[in-house]
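Structure in, sequence out. Go:
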């Protein structure tokens, strides 16, 4: 039964992970933390920090971590099949229609509004992933601002920013 729950929980994530990367994190939190209690809120945030260090899609790493924690290797497989099935089917189905209708005003408008909703969820998640008290330290504000500048304006690869931040964190204690 737990394998079925893992499959369907991550199938739901896969169906509604519109916008990529961080857009699905609220969905994973809802399923894995709030609904099934597979992860605590603290563990969810710790895993978020951990999965950002390793290569690959974040949803796959969350599905693997959660599935493995709950039911071992077979749990990781069940969660990942659920996670990947929806986007594979939807993109196969949607590719045909998108190619045909991508320039219609209705489709353009739909994608534009979805982008706004995903943007809002990413901002909300950003505030949830940090203890706001951390921003009361000047050096932490410098890290946030510098990371933002390096990413947005200097176009430094995000992996390099994360690695450097981790190294800096070792020395700042």
């Amino acid at each position: 039964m737990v394998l079925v729950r893992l499959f369907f929980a991550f199938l739901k994530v896969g169906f509604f992970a519109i916008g990529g990367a961080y857009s699905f994190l609220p969905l994973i939190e809802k399923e894995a933390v709030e609904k099934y209690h597979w992860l605590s809120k603290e563990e969810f945030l710790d895993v978020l920090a951990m999965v950002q260090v390793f290569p690959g899609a974040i949803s796959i790493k969350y599905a693997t971590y959660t599935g493995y924690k709950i039911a071992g290797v077979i749990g990781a497989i069940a969660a990942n099949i659920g996670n990947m099935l929806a986007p594979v089917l939807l993109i196969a189905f949607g590719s045909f229609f998108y190619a045909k209708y991508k320039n219609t005003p209705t489709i353009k408008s739909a994608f534009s509004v979805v982008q706004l909703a995903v943007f809002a969820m990413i901002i909300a998640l950003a505030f949830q992933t940090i203890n706001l008290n951390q921003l009361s330290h000047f050096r932490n504000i410098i890290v946030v601002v510098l990371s933002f500048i390096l990413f947005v304006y200097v176009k430094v690869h995000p992996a390099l920013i994360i690695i450097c931040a981790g190294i800096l964190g070792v020395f700042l204690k």
